[in-house]
Write a structure and sequence with these properties.
Helix content is 54%, strand content 18%. It contains 28 helices and 30 strands. The chain is elongated, with a radius of gyration of 57 Å.
Length: 902
C-alpha cells in the first residue's frame, strides 16, 4: 500500500508546496499572513515603554476647558512657553500649520496687566495734579513754581502715554508669528511636513528652500538607494518653519487590510531627505549620530544610549519600512499622558497670581503700617519677567530666555516669601487697633475693609498654591520629556488601526516609533522567499516522516507537527524578534499530510475490503485484521508456533452423498459447513481449508494468544451442540437420509504456520507432525467409538473448564511417539452428577485394565456398557478385555497400542 501511494504522494506534495508558496502572489493571502503576524505579536511579551515619552493630548477635557478646537495658535504658543518653563526636552507637533491664521486679542493681558497699568498710570497722574492744586490753595508754592511742576507733570503724562501705547500693542497677537517665536524660544521643537506625490507648485518654492535650510539632518550617509521618491511636500508657513528646530513627515504605510504595522523612517525629494516626525527629534536625543542608509537596515553610528555610545542597526523590510513594536495597551493606557489644557493653565498662573496681588494692593490696609513695598516688589518682578519674556520671544536668544526664566523664578520665590510673612494676620490686627482708636461711627467701615483684605490675601495665596501644585505635577512628568502634541479628542478623525486595536489615535504612532528605537526592541520579517521554500520543504518532508506509520498515526503526527511549527515560530519570534510568514508553510504541511493520509486511507480501505471479501469466509476477524496491519503476511514463508490444530470429518458422508443429487448435496453441505465454520471463527479460529465435508482449522495463529487450546476445545463442544440442532433440521426437512455425525481430533504442539504455495497462488496453512497427529486423532475416534479426541498436550492446557475421559496411550500411523488419548466429554457446567459418576467408574475400570486384570476389567466394562449401551469407549474396552482374556499381550507390553488404521 505504501509503495502504491508513496511516490505519487511526493509528486503531489511538491505541487502542494508550490501552490502554497504561490499564494504570496495574491494580496489577500498576504493579508491573512499579516493577521497571523498580529496574533503572534500579541503572544510576545509587551514592549517596555520609555518613561521620557509623553503624549500631550488636546483631548475632550482640554477642549471643554479651553474651547472648541482648532484653537487660536497663540493658545498652542502659551502651552509651548509652559514647556519651556517646565524643562521639557523636545516638543513634537503632530499638527499641520500649512495655512496662515487670523490675529487675535490677548484678553488675559487686556483685562489683567494692561488694565492695572492704566489704572496705576492715571492714579499717579491724578495724584500729582491734586498735589499741585492743593499746594497752590495752601500757598505752599507760587504760580511760577506751579508752572515748573506742571511741566514735569506733562513729561510724566507723555512717558505714560508712550508706555501704555507700546504695551497696548501687545493686546493684538499675530498668532502665527507668536507660535513660531514660542517654538524658537523653547528650542527643540519639531513640526509636521506631509510628503506628496503631486508635483510642487510655484508657491511652494520658498517653503521648500526654508525646509532645506532648517529641516535636513546633516549627518547622513547613503549606502543603498532609497525607494519611493516623492515629488513634493506640504511644508508649514514661513512664520513657523523658520522658527522650528526641525521637522518630520507623518505619512504612515497602511497595509492592504487597513492596519498600520510598519513605517518609513526617511523619505526623499530628489536628493533632499526628510525624516519621520518622531525619528527626526529622536536623532538629536541620541546625540546626533551618523545615519547610514543600507539595504535592509538603517545604522546609527555612535548613538548615545544611557550615556554610552553604540552602533544601532534598525531592520527594514524589502521596501525600506520598519516594523513598529506596538504596545498592547490602548492609546489612553500606553505611555504617559498630560492634557494640554494644564499647560495653558500653568502659563496663565503667573498672571492670575499677579492679578490677585494687584487687587490686594488696592486695599487701604497697607497704609496702616506695612506699606506697599513688599507687594510692589512682587508686582515689579512680574512686570520685569513679562518684559523679559517678550524680549526673549522677539530675540530668540538663549541668554534672553535664561534671564527671563531666572527673573520668573525670582518672582515666584518672592511671592512665596511675601505670602509666608502672614500679612493677613498682621494687617487685620492693625485694622482692629485703628477701629478702637477712631470714630465709632467708622467701625463698620474698618471691619469691611479688613474682611476684604483678608479675603484678597487668601485669594492670592490660593492662586500661588494652585501654581505650585500644578508645577509639581507637570515637572514630575515633563522635565526632560520627549513630548508629542496632537489632537486626541472624540472629535478627531485622525484614528487608525494597529495590530491590537481597531481604533488607536494616530498621534500615538509617533510615540510607538520613538519607543521602538529607544528600546531597541526591533522586529524583523523574514523575506517571502524563506516562507516559500519552507512551504515546499514542509510539504515534501512530512511525507518522508509519516509514510512508515498507520493512517491514525499519520493524522496525529501531521497535526502535532503543524502545531509544533507554529510553536517553534512563536519561540523564534519571541526570542529574536524575527517573524517568518508561517501560514503558507503550515498550510503546505497540513494539506500535504492530509492528502497523503487520505490517499493512504483510501488505498488501505480498498485493500482491507479486498482482504475481507477474499478471506472473510475462512479466516477469523483477528487474522484478517493482522493481515491488514501487516500485508507482508501474504508473502510466501512460515514460522514455527505453539498452536492447536483441529480436524473434523462426518461419519459415513459418502453414503449420504450417494443418496442426494448434486444440488441437494451442495445445499446440505453449505448449511452444515456454515454452522460449523461460524463457531470456529467465533472462537478466534482460522479455517485452513475445506476438504469435502471435512474442516481443517487451527487456533493461535496468526494472532498469538495463550488460550488457543481452550478455545479449540470449546469450539469442538459447541460444534457438537450445533450438530444436534442441524440434524434436527435436516431430519425434519428431509434434507439428509441420515444425521451428520462429526468426528473431531485436536492436538497442540509446534507447527509451521504461514503462506505456502507460489507468488500467484498461496494458502495460509499449517504443517508439521503436530498437525498430522491432530488428523490421526480424528480418525482414531472410529476405534474408540468417540466423537471428540484430544491429545495429552492439549489436555494439559485446558484447566478445569472441561470434563475429559482418559483413554489409551497409542502410537498412531506415521508417528512413533506414544500419545495419551483423552475424550473431550463436555463443558464442566453441562455435565450432570450421574454422568460424572459414570466417568469415575469408567476411570476405575480403565485402571484395572491397565493393571492387566482382564477378567475384572471385562466385568466392569460389561456393567458400564450395559448401563449406557451407546457409550463407545465402554464397548471398545469390553471388546479389548475379552480379546486379552482369550489372547493376552506379551509380558513386556508397555501398555501402548499401535494403531494400524488412520
Amino acid at each position: 500500500m505504501k509503495k502504491k501511494t508513496y511516490i505519487p504522494s511526493v509528486v503531489i506534495a511538491c505541487a502542494i508546496g508550490l501552490l502554497c508558496a504561490g499564494l504570496y502572489l495574491f494580496p489577500f493571502w498576504v493579508g491573512v499572513e499579516n493577521r497571523f503576524y498580529d496574533f503572534f505579536l500579541g503572544l510576545k511579551s509587551d514592549v517596555k515603554e520609555d518613561s521620557s515619552i509623553v503624549l500631550l493630548d488636546i483631548d475632550d477635557v482640554s477642549i471643554e476647558q479651553v474651547g472648541l478646537y482648532p484653537w487660536p495658535r497663540n493658545t498652542i504658543g502659551q502651552g509651548t512657553e509652559a514647556l519651556t518653563q517646565l524643562g521639557a526636552e523636545f516638543a513634537v507637533f503632530d499638527i499641520e500649520y500649512i495655512d496662515k491664521s487670523p490675529m487675535s486679542v490677548d484678553f488675559s493681558y487686556l483685562n489683567g496687566a494692561l488694565k492695572a497699568e492704566f489704572a496705576a498710570s492715571f492714579e499717579e497722574i491724578g495724584a500729582n495734579v491734586q498735589d499741585i492744586f492743593a499746594a497752590l490753595v495752601n500757598n505752599q508754592i507760587t504760580l511760577p513754581e506751579a508752572g515748573i511742576y506742571g511741566g514735569e507733570l506733562v513729561e510724566l503724562i507723555d512717558q505714560s502715554r508712550d508706555t501704555l501705547y507700546r504695551h497696548t500693542k501687545q493686546v493684538a497677537i499675530e498668532n502665527d508669528s507668536y507660535l513660531g517665536k514660542a517654538m524658537r524660544m523653547f528650542g527643540s521643537t519639531f513640526i509636521t511636513v506631509n510628503m506628496q506625490t503631486d508635483p510642487p507648485s510655484e508657491e511652494s518654492e520658498e517653503l521648500y528652500t526654508i525646509a532645506k535650510e532648517h529641516f535636513i539632518y546633516p549627518y547622513i550617509k547613503i549606502a543603498a538607494p532609497l525607494p519611493d521618491e516623492h515629488s513634493s511636500a506640504l511644508i508649514p508657513i514661513p512664520e513657523i518653519s523658520r522658527m522650528a528646530a526641525g521637522a518630520g513627515f507623518t505619512n504612515v504605510h497602511i497595509d492592504s487590510d487597513g492596519v498600520r504595522r510598519r513605517i518609513k523612517l526617511a523619505n526623499h525629494i530628489e536628493d533632499t531627505i526628510f525624516m519621520q516626525l518622531s525619528f527626526s527629534p529622536l536623532l538629536r536625543k541620541l546625540g546626533s549620530p551618523e545615519v547610514v542608509f543600507n539595504k535592509g537596515n538603517i545604522t546609527l553610528n555612535n548613538a548615545l544610549y544611557n550615556g554610552k555610545k553604540q552602533n544601532v542597526s534598525i531592520p527594514l523590510d524589502s521596501k525600506g519600512r520598519m516594523l513598529i513594536r506596538w504596545p498592547k495597551k490602548t492609546y489612553q493606557d500606553s505611555f504617559t499622558h498630560v492634557p494640554f489644557y494644564l499647560l495653558i493653565d500653568y502659563a496663565a498662573s503667573g498672571e492670575k497670581t499677579a492679578t490677585q496681588l494687584r487687587l490686594l494692593r488696592a486695599n487701604q490696609g497697607w497704609n496702616l503700617g506695612p506699606g506697599y513695598a513688599p507687594i510692589d516688589t512682587c508686582l515689579e518682578l512680574w512686570t520685569t519677567a513679562e518684559d523679559l519674556r517678550h524680549q526673549a520671544l522677539e530675540s530668540g536668544l538663549a541668554e534672553d530666555k535664561e534671564q527671563w526664566l531666572t527673573v520668573l523664578a525670582s518672582y515666584w520665590d518672592t511671592v512665596a516669601s511675601f505670602l509666608a510673612a502672614d500679612y493677613d494676620t498682621a494687617v487685620a490686627a492693625l485694622f482692629d487697633e485703628a477701629k478702637a482708636a477712631g470714630n465709632p461711627e467708622d467701625a463698620a467701615l474698618y471691619d469691611q475693609v479688613k474682611a476684604d483684605f483678608v479675603q484678597l490675601y487668601a485669594n492670592a495665596a490660593a492662586a500661588y498654591n494652585a501654581h505650585t501644585e500644578l508645577k509639581t505635577l507637570l515637572e514630575s512628568k515633563l522635565k526632560g520629556a520627549f513630548c508629542i502634541i496632537g489632537w486626541s479628542s472624540t472629535g478627531t478623525t485622525d484614528i487608525g488601526v494597529n495590530p491590537f486595536h481597531s481604533e488607536y489615535v494616530n498621534v500615538g504612532t509617533h510615540a510607538a516609533v520613538a519607543n521602538t528605537i529607544l528600546q531597541q526592541d526591533f522586529l524583523r520579517q523574514a523575506p517571502l522567499w524563506v516562507s516559500a521554500l519552507l512551504a515546499l520543504f514542509f510539504a515534501v518532508s512530512i511525507i518522508f516522516i509519516i509514510h512508515p506509520f498507520s493512517t491514525l498515526v499519520q493524522i496525529i503526527a501531521g497535526f502535532a507537527l503543524s502545531l509544533a511549527v507554529l510553536i517553534l515560530n512563536h519561540i523564534i519570534f519571541s526570542a529574536t524578534g524575527v517573524y517568518i510568514l508561517i501560514i503558507s508553510p503550515v498550510l503546505a504541511l497540513f494539506v500535504s499530510f492530509l492528502t497523503y493520509s487520505l490517499m493512504s486511507f483510501l488505498v488501505s480501505e480498498r485493500e482491507k475490503s479486498f482482504l475481507r471479501k477474499a478471506f472473510g469466509t475462512y479466516l477469523s476477524g483477528d487474522v484478517i485484521n493482522e493481515m491488514i496491519e501487516d500485508p507482508s503476511m501474504l508473502k510466501l514463508g512460515g514460522q514455527k508456533k505453539w498452536i492447536t490444530a483441529m480436524f473434523t470429518d462426518v461419519r459415513g458422508f459418502s453414503t449420504i452423498s450417494e443418496a442426494l443429487d448434486a444440488e441437494q448435496l451442495v445445499k446440505l453441505l453449505n448449511i452444515y459447513l456454515s454452522g460449523m465454520s461460524d463457531i470456529i471463527l467465533e472462537q478466534r479460529g482460522t479455517i485452513d481449508k475445506y476438504e469435502g465435508d471435512a474442516i481443517i482449522s487451527f487456533f493461535g495463529a496468526p494472532v498469538d494468544y495463550k488460550e488457543h487450546a481452550r478455545l479449540a476445545c470449546r469450539a469442538a463442544v459447541l460444534m457438537k451442540r450445533k450438530e444436534a440442532e442441524l440434524n434436527e433440521l435436516f431430519m425434519r426437512e428431509g434434507m439428509s437420509p441420515n444425521p451428520l455425525l462429526t468426528r473431531i481430533g485436536i492436538n497442540t504442539g509446534d507447527m509451521v504456520v504461514g503462506n505456502m504455495g507460489t507468488e500467484r497462488k498461496m494458502d495460509y496453512t499449517i504443517m508439521g507432525n503436530a498437525v498430522n497427529l491432530a488428523a490421526r486423532l480424528e480418525g482414531v475416534n472410529k476405534q474408540y467409538g468417540t466423537w471428540l479426541l484430544i491429545s495429552d498436550m492439549t489436555k494439559n492446557e485446558l484447566g478445569d473448564e472441561f470434563i475429559t475421559r482418559r483413554l489409551d496411550r497409542v502410537r498412531v500411523v506415521g508417528i512413533n511417539t506414544p500419545v495419551q488419548l483423552w475424550e473431550l466429554v463436555e463443558l464442566k457446567e453441562a455435565v450432570d452428577a450421574e454422568t460424572l459418576d459414570f466417568l469415575r467408574r469408567f476411570e476405575e475400570a480403565l485402571t484395572v485394565f491397565n493393571q492387566k486384570d482382564w477378567k475384572k476389567a471385562s466385568q466392569m466394562f460389561q456393567a458400564l456398557y450395559k448401563e449406557r449401551p451407546t457409550d463407545g469407549p465402554s464397548e471398545a474396552y469390553l471388546r479389548k478385555s475379552e480379546t486379552f482374556i482369550q489372547k493376552p499381550p506379551a509380558d513386556n507390553w508397555d501398555g501402548v497400542f499401535s494403531l494400524t488404521q488412520k
